[in-house]
Specification:
Elements (H helix, E strand, L loop, with lengths): L3 E3 L9 E3 L23 H4 L5 H8 L4 E3 L2 H7 L7 E3 L1 H7 L4 E6 L10 H13 L4 E6 L3 H13 L3 E6 H6 L1 H9 L3 E5 L5 H9 L7 H14 L3 E3 L6 H6 L2 H13 L5 E5 L4 H15 L6 E7 L4 H4 L1 E6 L8 E6 L21 H8 L4 E5 L1 H15 L5 H20 L4 E6 L7 H8 L10 H9 L8
Helix pairs in contact: 5-6, 6-8, 9-10, 12-13, 16-17
This protein binds pyridoxal-5'-phosphate.
């Protein structure tokens, strides 16, 4: 009755990413130019992104081929293992069959490397000389720094200040690979200076860090910007997770009844869920799909579905998504990767279509769930992933109480080895639950941009 591992050979690394747009009953609303309110053209995105990534962003092809060189590097840790969590099942006394797909085996320790690699690859091919980005918890900045070092491109990372202070080893990791890591808001950009002039103690947010990174790319023709979540092409690159899982469930002779992922910007969740969702959209089997977010930053469960900016400085296009308002600065919770005011437009759209559901959980339950999982399975989850685990435990216990044996799949999107400050706080009983910041969110939502189609 020990944990079982389902492995695939290198030849089973997917040859193409899966684009859910091809199978949706209605296309997602297009991104709009913030000045004109008109749908954005590819040319308008070219100052910021590599051309191939823009083409993927706008594509409705079902399959997009993964370049051979990218597949070769992916083979270092992919296909990633799928585990049957027999020890966790036993600890919970549940008749449920619990599976977890483990993305912590990547060089950077999370799913982020799945997209860092192709993003840097296409930029290198198109002659980009420098890449800028933002990072919340530091997972994305680490993944992009490693990928940039593989392709020999300088990398600049604006890291949300509260995480910069909580997680000094993330900065050290980025710098080891030659990345430059700057606490955001910074004095390097107009966007950063404007925030600091109003609030010198500002803890930062992903929305602010995005403004800084976009500004640097927009002002320098040889510099491009990369984003670690939210955009269609990022979600696309993460579908290797779900595509592999489908093959691994065949090995296990099982199929998930419930699929659970945590959501910050929505990429790891989409990565595991979209290939399964696509199968059901094409008339195949149907799983219940659940996104889990922090109650302190609840875009999917409490946000408004509206056109909004992706950043605080209002430099990005307008995208239709579940949003808490681009000026909302989430509380400084210990899960930096989930502190974003918006949600991926594709995930938002899919929720509007009724293809999935969402829940929120508080910080204390999150850390309790993470420790329970670690004790049973021996892997310490990233606090982000522990949001999904909290919902997984609820489902497994419900199965026990109702006496039903369901198959549950969770995406263990990263390990928590850089999150020990947070685990120490948990052990000392110092993790707090934040109330839902209703007042601040109402204020931020009142400032949503006026868009005719809204
Ligand atoms: C970045 C990150 C997240 C949140 O981003 P998504 O795009 O929602 O996946 C979640 N978990 C980990 C481990 C991360 O690094």
């Amino acid at each position: 009755m020990d944990t079982i591992k389902y492995l695939l050979p290198d030849s089973e690394i997917p040859k193409a990413w899966y684009n859910i747009v091809a199978d949706l009953p209605a296309p997602p609303p297009p991104p709009l130019h913030p000045g004109t309110g008109e749908p954005l053209t590819a040319a308008e995105l070219e100052p910021l992104f590599a051309k191939e990534l823009i083409a993927q962003e706008m594509s409705s092809e079902r399959e997009i081929e993964i370049p051979a060189e990218v597949r070769q590097i992916l083979a270092q840790w992919r296909p990633s293992p799928l585990y049957r969590a027999r020890r966790l099942e036993k600890a919970l006394g549940t008749p449920a069959r619990i599976y977890y797909k483990y993305e912590g085996t990547s060089p950077s320790g999370s799913h982020k490397f799945n997209t860092a690699l192709p993003q840097v690859y296409y930029n290198k091919a198109e002659g980009t000389k420098r890449i800028t980005t933002e990072t919340g918890a530091g997972q994305w900045g680490s993944a992009l720094s490693i990928a940039c070092s593989m392709f020999d491109i300088p990398c600049e990372v604006f890291m949300v200040k509260v995480s910069f202070s909580q997680k000094p080893y993330r900065k050290a990791l980025m710098e080891t690979f030659g990345g430059r890591c700057i606490a955001s808001p910074s004095m390097d950009t107009e966007a950063g200076r404007a925030i600091l002039a109003v609030d010198p103690e500002c803890p930062g947010s992903l929305g602010i860090a995005i403004s800084e990174a976009v500004e640097v790319a927009a002002k320098n023709p040889d510099t491009k910007y990369c984003l670690g979540s939210v955009l269609n092409h990022v979600l696309l690159h993460q579908t290797v997770i779900g595509l592999e899982s489908m093959r691994q469930f065949e090995l296990a002779d099982d199929y998930p009844d419930v699929i659970i992922g945590c959501t910050g910007g929505g990429s790891n969740f989409a990565g595991i869920a979209f290939p399964f969702m696509g199968e059901s959209l094409r008339g195949g089997r149907k799983a219940q799909i659940i996104a889990v977010e922090p109650s302190a930053c609840p875009s999917l469960t409490k946000g408004r579905y509206a056109y909004d900016f992706g950043d605080t400085g209002k430099l990005t296009p307008l995208v239709k998504m579940h949003t808490l308002g681009s000026s909302f600065i989430p509380p400084a919770i210990h899960t930096g990767g989930l502190r974003y005011h918006g949600m991926a437009p594709l995930v938002s759209h899919v929720q509007e279509l009724g293809l999935m559901e969402s829940r929120s959980v508080g910080q204390k339950d999150v850390f309790r769930a993470g420790v329970a999982f670690a004790k049973a399975e021996g892997i310490l989850p990233a606090p982000e992933a522990s949001h999904a685990i909290a919902a997984l435990l609820d489902e497994a216990i419900r199965c026990r109480e109702e006496g039903v044996s369901k198959s549950l799949l969770v995406n263990l999107c990263g390990h928590g080895h850089f999150d020990m400050t947070a685990y120490m706080k948990h052990a000392a009983g110092e993790i707090e639950d934040y109330d839902y910041p209703a007042g601040e969110i109402a204020m931020a939502l009142a400032g949503l941009p006026a868009v005719a189609t809204q």
